[in-house]
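Reopening this one. Same input as before:
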Amino acid sequence: METLDENQFTEFPKIPRLSRPALITEKIDGTNGQILITLDGEIYVGSRSRWLNDKQDNFGFWHWVMDRRDEVLTKLGPGRHFGEFWGSGIQRGYGLTKGNKRFSLFNVTRWAEQPLPPGCHVVPVIMGPEVFSTELVDDAVATLKIKGSFASPGFMQPEGVVVFHTAGNLLFKKTIEKDEEPKGRSKE
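Same output, byte for byte:
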């Protein structure tokens, strides 16, 4: 239990302005992954909630990274690299077959012009950066409904969008279907 120190001053945090740039990317329906590369060249592979290994994998992500170990080390370099692992046998599959899987990095500004390891991509930017508005988000969702997935052209059931609000340094998602329902629940 936290104790209250009546003499300790606590500063109220600054509130970011809502009317600031936002970047809208495609939300890919796969499984969250991360690659951690240490300064001394060690690689750790993780899911959203745990580290993976050759015996405890997540849809083959650990093996996928290790099969590209040299390219991952040299092209991604030290740091934490978050993204979505997706494709054949994972969630929607996106029309990929025969074990074809991809890893799409979330940090679009860092990786937009960088060479990436084989099978590694960047989540597609749908709109922005533009000043945030709910209309902008609705337009991005409508674009996906009409054009289909940007990550896998021709796949017509994309999941939705992720909105990165730059001033707030926050991510929000909006799905095309069942956005009003909490994840894991469906109306009967």
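So the earlier flakiness isn't reproducible anymore. For the record, The first helix runs from residue 61 to 67.
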